Amino acid sequence: MVYMPHPFVVILGKSVRYVARLRGGGSALPGLFVEKISPDFIKNTLAQLPHGVVVISGTNGKTTTTKMVVALLEAHGLKVFTNRTGSNFTRGVAAALLGDIDIKGNLDADIAVLELDEAHAVPFVKAVPPRYSLLLNVMRDQLDRFGEIDATAKMLEKIAIATTDTVVLNREDSRVLKIKDALTDQKVELFGLSDSLLPHFPSDDDMRDGSVKTVKRPDASVILKAYSGNKATYDLGGHEFSTTLKLNGIYNVFNGAAAIALAHAILGKDANTDSVISTIASVTPAFGRGEELQVGGQPLELVLVKNPSGFRLGLKSFSPEGYATMIAVNDNYADGRDMSWLWDVDFESLAGEGVAQVSGVRAYDMALRLQYDEVTINHIEPDLAGALRQFIDVNKDKPKRIYCTYTAMLALRKELSKITKVEVIS
Amino acid sequence: MSKQVITVLQLYPKDMNIYGDYGNLLVIQRRLEWYGYEPKVIHYNVGDTFPSDVDIIIGGGGQDSGQEVIHQDLINIGPKLKALAEKEVPMLLVCGLYQLFGNFFKTLDGKTLTGIGVLDVETHGTHERLIGNIVTNNEEFGDIIGYENHSGQTYLGKSAEPFATVVKGAGNNTRDGHEGARYKNVIGTYLHGSILPKNPLLADFLIHTAVTKKYGDFSTDIVDDLLADLARKVAEDRPR
């Protein structure tokens, strides 16, 4: 293996990062470069941090939850390093590090909060054992990558076992809760939902069962008690707090409970409840996760959909009434190549208003899916840029919502940035 | 005049449901409606009473854990399914249930799950996952387009016919170049996608067989498959 002195690697990596950004996009490319020439780069750099490393993983909600955790820790005066881009492979972490370290390789931060994709987290935690981990859920995602959900749950278990201090688990996901039984040395904190909110979160197992059963679950330190409109009530250790949120969609609000539980585990006695609640209230959705843009004086929402549970929750969270709806489905590697998942989402709720535009590489697969739910489609245009233009032109006076897979979301944001203000994520 | 009823039984929707094979049920249901029949759907789960009157049977893939949950129940109803297969009832079994409709599934750690032997095939667990877009060809149905995702490899015995020849992808195993198995009107396959939406000829084979068997003739209505044709064209050329 080639060994290079640290500062040299840093300068090289930083140059690649600069060039990659000039070319536009490619947040993981410089990371790949550094990974190749100095495999210990991430490990050595993160080892400097006084409060250690936090890993957040699971199928859905990583990016939004990470954003909330970072905000909570910063509100308590910590300097946080994070991989903001949602580029949650090891390479993305290396790339983000390159942006934040000085030329000598020093990282000016107290703690690292990293979202990691399940499969990439396993080798990562082997090299860099996290002090804290938060495991959100195991849903059918890109099964073409991982094989089966039981296998994905095993990956999360490995992250938990590698954790040195506290593991935070979702007690409403039976596969995640079970990880508790594999832990002996770690502290475990749980977050959950009140019984009345459970029916909003049918798991893949309940999907064809029709009903969500309320079974007895262990006590949780943070519970999302109630949610309606944009008002949420959280129960923190027996005390209830209500607040108005900027987040859209009940799943994002539930991620708030996860973030609070993790922040509590990290901050311990230093956690200030007022500051926790006001911070959660002020967090805006992460890019493409219910993000709202303005186009021609009308709101346009981007809702990322990556898997059946996420798509079902999205359709349940946002009423189609009065909105023009577009669906954009790609099947690139990051989206998952298998289109089977579309058949596990029920689209009948869109039948009343119809779908204005269907787009993406797999536009016809999506349209075929809608045909079998007898949902009317106005236009089908696989080309995303053309479809977006037409969608905006035809629906000028209406608020708009686009459900999109990951790479479709990135492409649409890029197109939208030509006509409106879109926050740049680098 | 009341509509003619076709009873569709879905095997184990509760435990074998995670690969989108629900699409197959939906396609059969809707197309029956579009052809003017009344679909009656029975969700058969572990411990339910197996109905006496069934016209079409479908079943999908599941987790290894799901296969273990349903295994004993499937063995119990095996003789009934076998009798229905002999009576030429059309059936479509995908992935996990295709394997268990065979003679046995031998897992990597040496455990043998006995199948119900409707199809003369055997499956062996491997370390290699055969995964990706797949195109196969069957003389009767033309190109069949779907997505495969399995680590079990299936080998055909003497009395089983392969269902299709592999054009692109892996199929039953890494050696033989064929996909699925057929016995009378029972089709076992590894194709998800779901398989029926993008392969309407196959859907109509199951429907047509069931209807003519029960009522003698078939509807003259036509279903518009333009979107399926366009989706097929795109899928054919996507990387594996």
Topology summary:
The complex is a heterodimer of chains A (426) and B (240).
Chain A: H1 6-23, H2 29-37, H3 41-46, E1 53-57, H4 62-75, E2 80-82, H5 90-100, E3 111-115, H6 118-127, E4 132-135, H7 143-146, H8 149-162, E5 166-170, H9 174-177, E6 187-193, E7 222-228, E8 231-236, E9 239-244, H10 250-267, H11 273-282, E10 289-295, E11 298-304, H12 308-317, E12 324-328, E13 355-359, H13 363-372, E14 377-381, H14 384-394, E15 400-404, H15 406-416
Parallel strand pairs in A: 1-3, 1-4, 2-3, 4-5, 5-6, 6-7, 11-15, 12-13, 12-15, 13-14
Antiparallel strand pairs in A: 7-8, 8-9, 10-11
Chain B: E1 5-11, H1 22-34, E2 38-44, E3 56-59, H2 64-86, E4 91-94, H3 96-100, E5 104-106, E6 112-114, E7 121-138, E8 142-156, E9 161-168, E10 178-183, E11 186-189, H4 195-198, H5 200-215, H6 226-236
Parallel strand pairs in B: 1-2, 1-3, 3-4, 4-11, 5-7
Antiparallel strand pairs in B: 5-6, 7-8, 7-9, 9-10, 10-11
Summarize, please.
The complex is a heterodimer of chains A (426) and B (240). Chain A is 38% helix and 19% strand.
Can you tell me about this structure?
The complex is a heterodimer of chains A (426) and B (240). Chain A has 426 residues and is α/β, with parallel strands linked by helices. Chain A has helices spanning 6-23, 29-37, 41-46, 62-75, 90-100, 118-127, 143-146, 149-162, 174-177, 250-267, 273-282, 308-317, 363-372, 384-394, 406-416, and strands spanning 53-57, 80-82, 111-115, 132-135, 166-170, 187-193, 222-228, 231-236, 239-244, 289-295, 298-304, 324-328, 355-359, 377-381, 400-404. In chain A, strand 13, helix 13 (363-372) and strand 14 form a beta-alpha-beta unit. The longest helix of chain A is centred in the first third of the chain and has 18 residues, at 6-23. The two termini of chain A are 31 Å apart. Mean pLDDT of chain A is 86; it is low at 1-5 and 22-26. Chain B has one domain (5-236): Rossmann fold, CATH 3.40.50. Chain B contains six helices and eleven strands. Chain B has helices at residues 22-34, 64-86, 96-100, 195-198, 200-215, 226-236; strands at 5-11, 38-44, 56-59, 91-94, 104-106, 112-114, 121-138, 142-156, 161-168, 178-183, 186-189. In chain B, strands 1, 2, 3, 4, 5, 6, 7, 8, 9, 10 and 11 form an eleven-stranded mixed β-sheet that branches. The longest helix of chain B has 23 residues, at 64-86. The termini of chain B are far apart. Chains A and B meet through helix 13 of A and helix 1, strand 7, strand 8 and helix 6 of B.
